[in-house]
Amino acid sequence: MSSESSHIVPYRTFILIWIALLILTGVTISVAQIDLGPLNIWVALSIASCKSALVVAIFMHLKYEQLLFKLALLSALIILAIFIGFTFIDVLYR
Amino acid sequence: MSNYPAGDRGFLGDPKAPGFLGWIFSTDHKRIGLLYFWAIVTFFCVGVLLGLLLRLELFSPGVDFMSAQTYNATFTLHGVIMIFLFIIPGIPAAFGNLIMPIQIGARDVAFPRLNLLSWWLYMIGALLAITSLFTGGGPPDTGWTFYVPFSTQTASNASLALFAVFIIGFSSILTGINFVTTIHRMRTTGMGWFRMPLFTWSLYATAWIQILATPVLAITVSLVMVERLLGIGLFNPTQGGDPVMYQHLFWIYSHPAVYIMVLPGMGVVSDIIPVFARKPAFGYKAIVVSSLAIAFAGSLVWGHHMYTSGMSDNAVLLFSFLTFVVAIPSAIKVFNWVTTLYKGSIALDPPLLYALSFVLLFSIGGLSGLVLGAASADVHVHDTHFVVGHFHYVMFGGAGFAFFAAMHYWLPKIYGRIYSKKLATIAWGFMFVGFNLLYLTMQIVGVKGMPRRYYNYLPEFTDLNRLATVGSWVLAIGLVIMFANLFHSVLRGTPVGPNPWGGASLEWQIPSPPPTDNFGENDPVVTHGPYDFKEAGIL
Fold it and tell me: Given CB atoms, is B313 within the 8 Å cutoff of chain A?
């Protein structure tokens, strides 16, 4: 376990991720100016998901952890998706 | 295993942590468990007192001694105390901390200091909840559900009570994280997943709900606080908000919370029944899988609290279907418990009496839940006393009686002293009769049409309400005898050895009270399952 927790990520990777996050933020702002109808929210959420995936995988080291931790996070995300999905079954058909 | 020199009080008298400070800053899981236990029992007694006052007000129609406002504040406080300060932390935080690490052969939980923090957060939250009664606009009057729009408009001090709930929620999350990590990482040699006692399994399933669902409560109460302070219109249709969204958010946490309350109770009963039937648990793996299935499916049925809220019919159909699905794993457990008892050599000691009451009362509560789960029937009994009777059967008859079963089963282990079995049985008799008189009558008066949350009622409901109130007195007499007997035993009870009940799981293999480090110098090595009484040399 100790070898995994001491995994060192080079600064170059961190800086690349930082630039990617900045670019994606720019994309979010520019897409928000265009009227895509209901798609606006989906685009914004997709970009936000990509950004958080980068942060969790690399800054927070999930990429280098055991399968168990990945599964734990995945199960939380699936449950969250179900919570939101079921709520929409009400909101969309009301 | 180490043997005690005479007069040694184990972790209770740990010389390294003397006095009051030695207790409130202790990171020993057993001491934290006891801190939780005594706090929880205290809050339970306050909650009972408020419940008795509510019943007394309902003895006759009209104003007896409470105004409408006082009645509203009293049932809000009764609900908040019983839900957030008694049932949710009840079994996991008190008995989970006391017993679970020992059951898996660990010396403590994975994060002892986090464990202490969770108790402090619980106490701070409780203190804030009490403070909310005497400050601001007076005691909150929203009901424990804090429904909008009333909770965003009431002049009573709902903000502080909401903040208290927020803090207590974090205490619950920390306990969940601690237990999942402990159970994954700290099982001793030979303690495979399917050698864990069923109580530990139930805590594992519960801990996952605590981690996944409780953050939603934090979000929900934060949104109401923001709404009260800034009025941004999240739940206000005139500002583009949606009041039904509040109910979704609230019940996304609060329905799984029902399983946070009752799953550990099922674990207690699953541990007690094999010991007192002198038989291995029937369908061990089925009980394990049904615990996990309840945790998962139970998280997806929150909409059944909202059939009359104006929710879409599609959602009503979905949530009604899923509600019936949850009945399956619950029934699997009941059948397994009954089959474990079948042809067993049953010792009808107090822990088993309370555990059997759990099975019966929880089944009645569960079956009346099906009436409410069916959307068409629910429309008629929604917001009546039938609902109040139903959830008291599940919560008090289920989780509450399991808590009492756990007290009678494990307190002799923790204090090394046992209570009078005769008195415990008499107390049980009073409680069982009083309980059914109180809550069955509530269900009947509910079906007849008496709404909940009113201090007043039509004169034709008088007789049934009087019967229920008399039931509450009988129940209270039972509770007084039970607690008096237990408190007396803690101080002056007959000393008992390590294994008064003949259990085969690890907590019964160490001295009573357990030493601070649980297992002495050597970690235990497990060679048999928790209910293999023959291999453990007990039968």
Answer: yes
Residue with tokens 């909940």: B452
Sort out which chain B residues have CB atoms less than 8 A from A89's CB and list them: 312, 314-315, 318
Q: Report the domain count for chain B.
A: 1
Give the residue numbers in A contacting B (CB under 8 Å), as ranges. 68, 75-76, 79, 82-83, 86-87, 89-94
CA–CA distances in Å: residue B400 to residues B235, B320, B361, B405: 35, 27, 10, 9
Q: Is B192 left (phi over 0), alpha (psi -120 to 50) or beta?
A: beta
- The predicted pLDDT at position B67 comes to 92
Contact B279, B530 (CB under 8 A): no
What is the extent of the structural domain holding B341? 26-509
pLDDT score of A72: 85
The pTM is what?
A: 0.93
pLDDT of B7 reads: 54
The pLDDT, as a whole number, for residue B6 is 45
Q: Which of B184, B248, B300 lies at the smallest CB-CB distance from A90?
A: B248
Tens of pLDDT, residues A10-69: 889 999 999 999 999 999 999 989 888 888 888 998 999 999 999 999 888 888 888 988
Segments making up each domain of chain A, as ranges:
2-93
